[in-house]
Amino acid sequence: MKRLLVCGLMMGFSGLAAAQGDPARAFDPATAAVRAPGTKVRIDLIGDSTQTDNAGYGRGFCANLTAEVDCLNMARGGASTKTFRQMGIWDRALATRPDYMVIQFGHNDAESKDHNDRQVTMAQYEANLRQFVTEARAAGVKPVLCTPLTRRYFGSDGKIHSDLLGHAETMKRVAADMKVPLIDLQAESIALLDRIGESEGNKLAITKKDSDGKTIFDKTHLNWAGSYVFGRIVAVDLGHAVPELRPYVRPETAKLPPAGVKAVKVIEGGPVKIVLVGDSTVALGGGWGPGFCAVMTKNVTCIDDALNGRSTKSFVDEGAWKKALDEKGDYYLIQFGHNDQKPAEKVHTDADGSFQTYLKRYIADVRAIGGVPVLVTSLSRRTFKDGKVVQDLNDYAAATRKVGAEENVTVVDLNSISTQLLNKMTQEQADGFDAVAHADAKAEQKAVGSKAPLDRTHLNPYGQKVFGRIVADNLVRTLVELGPDVIGEPASAAVATPMQAAPTDGH
Does this model's pTM top 0.70? Predict the structure, then answer.
């Protein structure tokens, strides 16, 4: 089989689903303006990855506001003042009809040598900010400008050398000219980091892999601890900048919830147990599970409890789900769909009905034992028609994404990723992933009287390696605390694979 040549492919997912934790709620135009019960004021976060929940200060900000605030995170990883509008997120934010918007951009607006489409000149950056302010006011929203969080660029003198000072100054000028309340997070974040130093500053960061595959600190994005440190700063400063909001800022600094405490322990190198559940496309023998477990570090106990031939229904009915829960895992990756679509009563579920009900049960059960649920959409089958992969799992993949959005659960959209990857190939190339003599495939062929020699559902060892790596690499772009627990590989040796949109997009 030829080496895969899919380079730098970014999934262009539509909508503002919580599938990637970015933002924290699904977007529905019909209910966008409906506020959480018991709240008196709505505040939207408008910005890039450094404002998101999983990679920025978003969740720390919202946690430091009282229960009377409906705090809505509309930030998007990789967004600039230009692309936030182009992607339609600005119009959706206006449709939520907030009372206040905290607007922060700059990281992705800054021009660089590669001249990405999202980048703009400083003059255009200023014009875009002014347009946001004007349009927010026209919609009855009170805008608040927030200078960009500094990157953690420490110099030999032990101090921060920011590359965003110009954007901060431009934003301050817009705020002064248009009489907009201002939070100078650039200055405050520099002052804090200068005071605590690089070593302590790294304790607020997530990690990433360098070109050699080694784990290094990310100088832009934040872990749970960093989110709560800088989120507190923004919340307190908002109360100072907008006095009428001061009563809505918690008087004491919010403490990390249990999920945050666990995540901090994980990112600091603590032990973690990951349990995989699903059907044969996850299981030992013909699924991506073995490839996923193979790229975990020794800190991880990786258990593949997936079983051949199971659906969301039969996995529960046969007691397999109880067995998996008894593992008391920290994270559960859950993928079904291939057998749910079959007509047999013992396995069938409806994509628009019982399938979603079962997924929600899995999520609730994992949360009840203190674990973190993750949904994975079904691995694509590899049968081609007219040069493209036949899409026979779309309904179940869409249902999985829908449940993830509703339940605010991370979704690894393996169905979309694997389909996009395969559509760059020929049938012959895709058959290089095919398993040989898999038990499920032989049973199905016998049932229909087929002697088809090719198994285009299950994976051989090479396919397990490729798709297991895809799941792992996409998982940690949202559940960032797991980043150090994935074994990296040199860029020169890696098989280039698709990446779905994630909170960590943008630098």
Answer: yes
